[in-house]
């Protein structure tokens, strides 16, 4: 399925749209903020050129129909506050989720709101049978966001991803179509 680049998704406080080069400075300010996690792939981005490469890759994958990275803008002032993506990594019908918000927006519920909309998009528009996500085990805020989005703990992966050839342990979560309730935020406990 191909999603037109001029499509928008909406949440109560945000518009989610196709990533654009005009987002470069705001994305760089997030990725290089002291509070942004350095042990995630986007935390390795430190230059305007790297951000532009990231955006170009997001655009290319969108046009190829293999991944959709949505840039989230706050409705009240059109400020970029983060991104969320959904990608089909190989298993047909299983889509992986990823998200981040700018550190100056943390603690305001934006990540949960955006993730819920991306989950609904995956099931409603992409026809996902299952969505899957992971977060570093020490990233309690991201793990809570996954749980509020209704995802269920699957397992701990000691080699979830690598930064500088070192494994980063993650908790993996999933939500099946049968478990999904459209637009409903859920709260559960950390494993």
Secondary-structure map:
Elements lengths: L8 E2 L3 E4 L6 H8 L16 H17 L2 E8 L5 E8 L6 E8 L8 H15 L5 E7 L3 H9 L3 E12 L2 E11 L15
Parallel strand pairs: 5-6
Antiparallel strand pairs: 1-2, 2-3, 3-4, 4-5, 6-8, 7-8
Helix pairs in contact: 1-2, 3-4
Description:
The protein has a single domain (9-176), classed as Gcn5-related N-acetyltransferase (GNAT) (Aminopeptidase). Helices cover 26% and strands 31% of the residues. The protein is built from four helices and eight strands; from the N terminus they run ββααβββαβαββ. The chain has helices at 24-31, 48-64, 110-124, 140-148, and strands at residues 9-10, 14-17, 67-74, 80-87, 94-101, 130-136, 152-163, 166-176. The chain has an eight-stranded mixed beta sheet with strand order 1-2-3-4-5-6-8-7, sandwiched between helices. A hairpin with a 5-residue loop joins strand 3 (67-74) and strand 4. Helix 1 (24-31) crosses helix 2 (48-64) and helix 3 packs across helix 4 (140-148). The longest helix is centred in the first third of the chain and has 17 residues, at 48-64. The relative contact order is 0.15.
Keywords:
single chain, 191 residues, alpha+beta, Aminopeptidase, 8-stranded mixed β-sheet, 8 strands, 26% helix, 31% strand, disordered C terminus
Number of domains: 1
Distance between the termini: 35 Å
Count every beta strand, where a strand is a DSSP E run of 2 or more residues. Answer: 8
| CATH architecture designation | 3-Layer(aba) Sandwich
- In the CATH scheme, the class would be Alpha Beta
- Average of pLDDT: 92
Poorly predicted tracts of residues: 185-191
Assign the structural class, choosing from mainly alpha, mainly beta, alpha/beta, alpha+beta, or little secondary structure. Answer: alpha+beta
Report strand order across the widest sheet.
1-2-3-4-5-6-8-7
Main sheet: strands, sense, barrel:
8 strands, mixed
How many helices? The count is: 4
Q: Could you please say which CATH topology applies here?
A: Aminopeptidase
């Amino acid at each position: 399925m191909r999603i037109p680049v001029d499509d928008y998704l909406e949440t109560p406080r945000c518009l989610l749209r196709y990533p654009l080069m005009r987002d470069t400075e705001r994305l760089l300010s997030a990725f290089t903020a002291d509070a942004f996690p350095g042990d995630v792939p986007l935390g390795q981005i430190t230059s305007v050129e790297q951000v532009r490469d990231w955006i170009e890759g997001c655009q290319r994958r969108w046009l190829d129909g293999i991944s959709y990275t949505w840039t989230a803008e706050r409705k009240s002032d059109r400020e970029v506050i983060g991104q969320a993506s959904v990608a089909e990594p190989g298993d047909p019908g299983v889509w992986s989720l990823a998200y981040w918000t700018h550190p100056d927006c943390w603690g305001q519920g934006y990540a949960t709101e955006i993730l819920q909309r991306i989950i609904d998009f995956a099931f409603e528009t992409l026809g996902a049978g299952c969505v899957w996500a992971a977060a570093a085990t020490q990233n309690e805020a991201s793990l809570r966001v996954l749980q509020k989005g209704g995802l269920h703990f699957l397992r701990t992966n000691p080699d979830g991803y690598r930064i500088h050839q070192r494994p980063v342990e993650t908790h993996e979560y999933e939500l099946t179509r049968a478990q999904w309730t459209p637009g409903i935020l859920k709260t559960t406990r950390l494993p």
